[in-house]
């Protein structure tokens, strides 16, 4: 059957960004049976034994409690499971000296859903026909923002400035405040901190400046903290979560070991939370409660924050060091390659300046030597202008073993050398 689709139906039935590449990767892995690929494309976190044990223990606690029936056998409130909301409020009030009540918190089925609600509640056409933009102040950013808006023309991203340390082969993106435009036609602002795909952590000052720009036009700023402290604490550089009147602090438990349970958390002004909660009631009534119930134990005991800091963060930080050390050893010093500063998340981001082929072709070349990464051009949702840089980067996942990461980077270095050399000879 081939039903006629609405405009929204057609749009939502297409895979965008990295999801489209994932299809190619899955097909490559399937077709290459017998060939050993080093797959450094995954965004799926690894199962760390201590983290899995924490969730097993919390599940045992839930099963043994009288709460169990209430959690799984009954509908609940749209806002989320009350004991979990209370646990988050207590934890954040204590940790950051806030005055949160339960009205400041909303739980959603994963944080992707949260961005979907926000993008469509604050972005798109108003009843008077005015287009409210969803602004990504620094591109590249999370590819998932590309698929959340039902009005695609509302999404707009800004090119960053590049802070380059040529000698060290390192760089860092910074928001370009001389270009960034926030005005009456801005509906909301979204960015990830730490950032997927680059590992960038915007500084406190940069975040405050963006928040102030938003505040002057009454614009909500969603800070996607899927990798931030206190859980999963995947920041490798010190950072402070920033709160404020127009800030929605958005979290996820996916990188803290519960991606399957789909838990997103929004913290912010109660009127903003109310708008998103109503959206949620219409969309799905409420998020599943089992994951929230076990998470309440882990937050209340302090175990989730402790395991994030002592297990999850060092695990991925070490992977980044392996990757960085190998690249420094293996990459020719005279090539213009630059690794983004590894400030957090579970990825490394490599920029090959003046790469003679596109990122997609480079990805194909790497597949030939059994290495899979993600071509960088999928991470610029909303950036409509042409920019050569978009086709000169790739995202490398830190979810491989140390050996896979080292071997993968050695092979990548050889491919890079070949590609640049070939172009020098044929020029
Ligand atoms: C930056 C960022 N935001 C949001 C998400 C969505 O996470 P979830 O819906 O699992 O909470 C991801 C997933 O990888 C991410 O990397």
TrEMBL record:
Q: Where is the Aminotransferase class I/classII large domain?
A: 37-412
Pfam families, A to Z:
Aminotran_1_2 (PF00155)
Q: Output a single Gene Ontology CC term carried by this record.
A: cytosol
Q: Which GO terms describe its molecular function?
A: pyridoxal phosphate binding; valine-pyruvate transaminase activity
Q: What is its EC number?
A: 2.6.1.66
Q: Which UniProt keywords apply?
A: Aminotransferase, Pyridoxal phosphate, Transferase
What cofactors are annotated for this protein? pyridoxal 5'-phosphate
This protein's name: Valine--pyruvate transaminase
Origin species, per record, is Aetokthonos hydrillicola Thurmond2011
């Amino acid at each position: 059957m081939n039903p006629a689709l609405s405009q929204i139906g057609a749009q939502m039935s297409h895979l965008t960004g990295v999801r489209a590449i994932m299809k190619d990767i899955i097909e490559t892995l399937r077709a290459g049976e017998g060939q050993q690929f080093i797959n450094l494309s995954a965004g799926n976190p690894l199962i760390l034994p201590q983290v899995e044990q924490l969730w097993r223990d919390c599940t045992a606690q839930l099963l043994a409690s009288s709460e169990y029936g209430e959690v799984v056998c009954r509908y609940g409130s749209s806002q989320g499971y009350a004991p979990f909301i209370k646990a988050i409020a207590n934890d954040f009030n204590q940790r950051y000296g806030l005055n949160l009540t339960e009205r400041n918190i909303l739980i959603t089925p994963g944080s992707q859903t949260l961005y979907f609600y926000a993008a469509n509640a604050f972005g798109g056409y108003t009843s008077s026909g005015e287009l409210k933009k969803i602004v990504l102040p620094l591109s590249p950013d999370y590819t998932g923002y590309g698929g959340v808006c039902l009005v695609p023309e509302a999404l707009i991203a800004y090119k960053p400035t590049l802070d380059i340390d040529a000698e060290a082969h390192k760089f860092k993106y910074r928001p370009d405040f001389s270009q960034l435009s926030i005005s009456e036609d801005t509906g909301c602002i979204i960015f990830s901190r730490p950032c997927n795909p680059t590992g960038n952590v915007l500084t406190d000052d940069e975040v405050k400046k963006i928040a102030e720009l938003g505040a002057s036009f009454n614009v909500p700023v969603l800070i996607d903290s899927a990798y931030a402290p206190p859980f999963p604490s995947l920041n490798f550089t010190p950072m402070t979560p920033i709160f404020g009147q127009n800030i929605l602090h958005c979290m996820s438990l996916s990188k803290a070991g519960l991606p399957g349970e789909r838990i997103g958390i929004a913290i912010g002004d109660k009127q903003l939370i109310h708008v998103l909660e109503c959206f949620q009631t219409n969309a799905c009534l409420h998020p599943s409660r089992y994951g929230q119930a076990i998470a309440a134990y882990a937050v209340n005991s302090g175990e989730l924050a402790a395991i994030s800091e002592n297990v999850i963060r060092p695990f991925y930080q070490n992977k980044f060091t392996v990757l960085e050390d190998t690249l420094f050893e293996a990459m020719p010093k005279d090539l213009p390659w630059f690794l983004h500063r590894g400030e957090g998340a579970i990825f490394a981001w490599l920029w090959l300046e003046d790469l003679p082929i596109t990122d997609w072709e480079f990805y194909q070349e790497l597949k030939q030597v059994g290495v899979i990464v993600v071509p960088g051009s999928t991470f610029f949702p909303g950036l409509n202008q042409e920019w050569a840089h978009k086709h000169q980067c790739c995202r490398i996942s830190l979810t491989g073993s140390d050996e896979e990461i080292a071997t993968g980077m050695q092979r990548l270095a050889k491919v890079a050398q070949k590609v640049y050399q070939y172009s020098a000879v044929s020029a």
